[in-house]
Specification:
With 465 residues, the protein is α/β, with parallel strands linked by helices. The chain has 21 helices and 16 strands. The longest helix has 17 residues. 42% of the residues are buried. The structure holds pyridoxal-5'-phosphate (PLP).
Length: 465
């Protein structure tokens, strides 16, 4: 005798919607939406994509799981165990507690464009300006959506329909679709390439300007690669001299915008916006969420005249920041009034500066916590604490390796599967893989997340042993 097809026992949508466990789901999500999810689950049973449960509890579990899956937010918090501090795919800089508080407070009404002294209309572009002036020494500044926007705004304002002189060696791609030749083109300007890939001299710029119609000189910091050997680069100060002589503004795209001496973080030399301003750049552009350690933003700082023109350009309106970002940036920048405080309070800077020894001790403590949950769990993962190197990331300091400590797991052929299990943890843990071993670098894991990592490892160990 052939067993009856279990699909014949699938109840109708309406019958399931009457069940108390299903009715309980409705207030949080609405009747229509829950009906849609129940129908989708039942359709998948009818088409054989899902087994048919043999109890009401079985139906309840499936529908609840589907509702949880479909209603989960798209943007989820993750634990960054990659050791890449400014991981662009994981949201670049984690924000300081001060910035998070300011952003929460700004989420309601605020004096974004309102002058509380006079009761009159104020300007959104006033926020953060005083702080940028203090930190960089610039006369004025405008904050936009990101650094790509700041560079595009500068080029559009000063060179639309005209030429922009850029060294051949600086026609860079930053990643995520930011390529200097395309940005120049998108700004409606014409790229005038100067010099060669490895050597560009002041005379090369002078010749380009004398040949005609150069409206701006753009200098781009090589954030994410280095060139060595037979090279020569024109210094910013030399470009400024040329710019002054020919009446052409000099725009410096700095990218990361480190706001303190890189030596204080144990990193190689990196130019700061203050140095560019002191060298005479008319405009300096940098990101808010790279080494500044704040929210996604772009800062265009420089002379009063140049910033005023950029701020008055219609594109500026299209690139403007929202109130929550401005609040987070302001709170982050205000920490720089005391560089030592910035290094302690801004997570990206604190992470970069943490010595390996401290990370090693935390790694040992995490493994001890895993072991305490059951003998053999640590062994199942073939886990050990190893020395490794972290990266700054975010397209900055391409050559800098920061000595770090990681928990290494011997996954062998299962490496892909183990990574996936860590990603499926709540919250997801994103680790790094090298051949058959996984690495969880403690540098980018906040100390208060150590217990999450221990729980994720214990769950992984239990599932593989
Ligand atoms: C990162 C970077 C950019 C792009 O900045 P975003 O804030 O990501 O838009 C542009 N130029 C340089 C040199 C960079 O390093």
């Amino acid at each position: 005798m052939v067993a009856p097809d279990p699909r014949r026992s699938i109840p109708g949508v309406d019958r399931l919607l009457e069940r108390p466990w299903c009715r309980d789901l409705i207030p949080a999500h609405g009747r229509n939406w829950i009906t849609g999810r129940v129908r989708a689950v039942l359709d998948e049973m009818r088409s054989g994509q899902r087994p048919v449960p043999d109890s009401d509890d079985g139906f309840a579990a499936l529908v609840r799981a589907e509702v949880a899956r479909a209603s989960a937010p798209s943007l989820k918090r993750v634990v960054n165990a990659t050791g890449v501090v400014l991981h662009t795919n994981l949201g670049r800089a984690p924000l300081a507690a001060e910035a998070r508080r300011a952003m929460t407070a700004a989420a309601g009404y605020g004096n974004v464009e309102f002058d509380l002294d006079t009761g009159e209309r104020g300007s959104r572009y006033d926020h953060c300006v005083e702080l940028v002036r203090e930190i960089t020494g610039a006369d004025d500044a405008v904050v936009v959506n990101n650094n790509a926007g700041a560079v595009a705004l500068a080029l559009t304002t000063f060179a639309a329909g005209r030429g922009v002189a850029v060294s051949h060696g600086e026609l860079v791609e930053i990643g995520g679709g930011f390529r200097i030749p395309e940005v120049v083109e998108a700004a409606g300007a014409r790229l005038v390439t100067v010099g060669t890939t490895n050597r560009t001299r002041p005379a090369d710029y002078a010749r380009a300007i004398e040949r005609g119609d150069v409206a701006a000189i753009l200098k781009v910091h090589r954030s994410n690669f280095s060139i060595s050997g037979f090279t020569e680069e024109t210094e910013l100060a030399e470009l400024v001299e040329l710019g002054v002589a020919h009446g052409v503004p000099v725009i410096h795209d700095l990218g990361s915008g480190l706001l303190m001496d890189s030596a204080a973080l144990g990193l190689p030399y990196e130019p700061t916006p203050a140095e560019s301003i002191a060298a005479g750049a008319d405009l300096v552009a940098f990101s808010g969420d790279k080494l500044v350690g704040g929210p996604q933003a772009g800062v265009l700082a420089g002379t009063g005249k140049c910033v005023a023109r950029a701020r008055g350009h219609p594109l500026c309106r299209a690139l403007r920041s929202d109130k929550v970002t401005l609040a987070g940036l302001e709170a982050t920048l205000s920490l720089y009034r005391d560089p030592e405080r910035a290094r302690e309070r801004i997570p990206a800077l604190r992470m970069i500066g943490t010595p390996r020894g401290r990370l090693e001790r935390r790694a040992e403590a995490v493994l001890a916590a895993v072991g305490s949950r059951g003998a053999g769990l640590r062994r199942a993962l073939r886990a050990e604490v190893v020395a490794t190197d972290s990266l700054v990331g975010g397209g900055t300091f391409p050559d800098a390796r920061i000595p770090s400590a990681a928990i290494s797991l011997g996954a062998g052929d299962e490496a892909g599967e183990w990574l996936a299990r860590l990603r499926a943890h709540k919250p997801p843990v994103v680790a790094r893989r090298r051949r058959g071993r996984l690495f969880l670098d403690l540098r980018t894991i906040a100390p208060e997340e150590d217990s999450v990592v221990a729980a994720a490892l214990a769950a992984l160990a239990a599932s593989v042993s």
